[in-house]
Amino acid sequence: MAFSRTLHRGLSALLVVAGLVSPAAAQFTQSPPGAVKGVLGQGSGAAGAPAVTMTIDADAGYQDNSVPEADGQAVDQPDYIQSGYVGSVGGGIRFQAGRLNRYVLGTANGSANQEQVSSELRSLRLYRGIGSFQAGTNLGRRSGVTMGVGVSYEPTYLFGAFSPLDRNGSGASPVEGTPQPAEPANVSLTQQRWISTTANLGVFHNWTSRQRLGVRYESFRLRPITGTGFESNRNSGALNYLWNRTQAMRLDFNYQYDDNPQVFEDIERPLNTQSAEGRVRYEHRIAPGRSIAVMGGAGLVRVRTGALVNEPAFGVTSPTVSASLDYDLSRVWKVGVSARRDVTVLNGLSPEPFKSGVAMASLDGTLGRRLFLGLNGGVSRGRALHATFGQYNLTTFNAQLRYNLGSYAGLQVRYTYNDHEFRNVSLLPDSIPVRYNRNAVRVGLTFWFPLFGSF
Fold first, then answer.
1. Each residue of 2-40: pLDDT tens digit?
2. If you placed Cys at 342, which of 115, 164, 211, 265 could pair as Cys (CB 3.0 to 4.6 Å)?
3. 0.90 cut: is pTM over it?
4. What is the chain's percent helix, strand, coil content, to nearest 5?
5. DSSP labels for 365-401?
């Protein structure tokens, strides 16, 4: 489409211009640590002291949505997928205290999107809300415990398309851990609402100063509160052994068991998986402000499903492969790449287990003292393990350019691209488009408020 081509040309020009500007810090305009005080109090100012911040975002723009032709046949554009003007407002609060193994972290985020704001188009209003709480503490000198709970209320996404990459993470403290490449922003596909809840509990013991054994349990529930879809009820247990062989090299072994039945009215497909994987991580400091960390791993996953409709139960064993690269190009520029071959399920949308290949990449840094550039994108490809030969393909890309107006506000321009396709996927809800493409540009303001603590 003409609009789509215009967006791609505009984005290319934007990135060429951005690449000519010199780098600086990658957040709002930086101040010396402790120089910014919370409006409700500064606290003790000590490392790990409680801190509360709030963010508010508002933007508006235009999105080009389309349902491409399939097999040479024109497809009607559903009412809920129309091109038009969009606007949104959102906010979030974050509370954190502590460091490393002793911490408390709470977040709450919500937003409202008004889509297709035009007298000629059907107007939709989409709400979402997410809340989470995490905590960890030591149990004696060598052991510790972590826990977390969360709840979300959201429209329909391709749930699970990028979730295999979660297993590539370092498992560091969420307060002081090294950020991983961000998952590309989700795109709501319908007005249908889903509610999900999650809870996890983990215990670890440091056998020596370099060896740690951890056990973790997680429960996840996803169900539609409007429309149709499969309920997901996943319970998983994991065992992790970590050995810091040297200061630069780390070895870890992971075993995980998942039981994730998908239920729709009187239809239920039991599904359980067992996987074992070994990984090697290597970190090297090249120079002050420059470092590189690489990870590689391999293993096996065993998948077993129950009978569904007229299809028999089956079991299959498949290899898993994982890899990641995090490269600090300078003090203010970072590159991240993460990829994985595994088995995944599109929770809520299909009971089929897919042999998937997933990859994401990100680049972020500052251009001058006030200009920030962030890029991330990913692809997810899946082929059904069953004989239906079902497939899904998902490609997504996000670009953000933000000009910091000071320590508390920024003006930003965002471009997003999403494209997905399903082929022969069994029992896909009728409300989900089999083919879907979206280009969107938004301009908005973002505000950061230090409520309590020293920053």
1. 434 443 434 333 333 333 333 223 346 666 777 788 888
2. 164
3. no
4. 5, 60, 35
5. EEETTTEEEEEEEEEEEEEESSTT--EEEEEEEEEEE
